[in-house]
Structure formats: C-alpha cells, structure tokens
Design goal:
This protein is an alpha+beta fold. The chain has one domain: Alpha-Beta Complex (tt1808, chain A), CATH 3.90.1570.10. The termini are far apart.
Length: 191
C-alpha cells in the first residue's frame, strides 16, 4: 500500500528565509514554493542579447536594465515575481522586504518563453504584472523561432497586442523609445 505525501504549505517568513539562504530563485504562490530553474542556453543568450541591445540604447538616459536576479514587486501576487529582464526609468523605486530588494516601478518586462513557463507567462503572470502601476510594455520572446509578441498599454488602459516575426524584422519599444532588430536578439542562437 502506498502512502500519499501531504502537500506542504509555507509561511511567507519561511519563504523569505529560503530566498535569503539560497542561490536559486524561488517564487511563492498561495503557500507553495516553486524553484525557478535555470533556462536553456538559448534562453540565456536571447535574454543577454536583449539586455545588451536595450542597455546600449538607454546609455545616458535615466533608465536601468536588470536581469532575472531582480525581484519585481507585484501587488496582486505577493510578495514578488521574477522577469527575465526588467527596465525602470526615472527615479528607481526599490522596496526592501525582509532583506530582499524588490523593484517597484518597472516600465518594461520581458519573458523569454520556455515550454514549462509559456502558458503561465502568457496569461496568469501577465495578469499579475498588470497590477504594477508603472508597467507599460510586455515582451514575450520565443526561443525556438524569431518571434516576439508585444503588449503595449494604451492611454485608455487597454493592452494592444502585436507580433513581429522573422530575422529581418524590427520591433519598436514605445515605453523606452528604443528598437530591437530580431537578427540581434537571436544572434548566435538562430541562423
């Protein structure tokens, strides 16, 4: 006869303790803790390419680019989430909760999609991110083909979706007045 293991639920204090003691990234949801495992090499190269291209264009402007180590404060999904890339402009707002620094005012968030996270990133996580007052633009970047889905918040509060495909394409990022060439996003990943 087999025995079923009872699912363990954690307090926020236990979660904070784990995050501070570990080199891994974890997300907390309704008492459960999920390890945010490392992505593929393609995932890493794409995220780095985007960070470099955006960072170079923002040089001299009052904006900062952060990688996936930066926790993002999400009002509707406390205490925080991790994006693959975040951009904040203007006065940088950081809130420290239990020794963990959280970015409060991202304007642009980027997720490089993987099979295990794509559905969550496209739907639930996007809904969570929408509760961030400063949030204006969301990019979902495929790692299998040259494709970026872009959501831009309109003046009326609605989100406009568009998709750019093909290595010869370019995408304009209105939230930070920058552009990405897909050939550069996928450099050393796709031919």
């Amino acid at each position: 006869m087999s025995t079923l293991r009872k699912k363990r639920f954690y307090t926020l204090e236990e979660y904070y303790s784990l995050v501070k003691q570990s080199d891994e990234r974890y997300e907390y949801w309704n008492g459960e803790i999920f390890c945010m495992s490392s992505g593929s090499k393609e995932h890493a190269f794409i995220a780095t390419n985007i960070a470099r291209r955006i960072g170079n264009q923002l040089e001299g402007r009052n904006c900062r680019v952060a990688n996936s180590d930066m926790a993002i404060k999400v009002p509707t999904a406390p205490p925080f989430r991790y994006a693959d890339l975040s951009v904040a402009c203007g006065t940088l707002e950081i809130e420290n909760i239990n020794g963990i620094d959280l970015l409060v005012n991202p304007i642009l968030l980027v997720e490089v999609l993987s099979n295990s996270t794509e559905r969550f990133d496209r739907h639930k996580k996007f809904e969570f991110y929408k509760s961030i007052e400063s949030f204006r633009e969301y990019l979902l970047v495929s790692q299998d083909q040259p494709s970026i889905v872009q959501y831009v918040k309109q003046d009326n509060g609605n989100w406009q979706a568009s998709e750019v495909t093909g290595l010869d394409s370019e995408i304009y990022l209105p939230s930070i007045n920058s552009r990405l060439l897909l050939r550069e996003v996928y450099q050393d990943v796709l031919s």
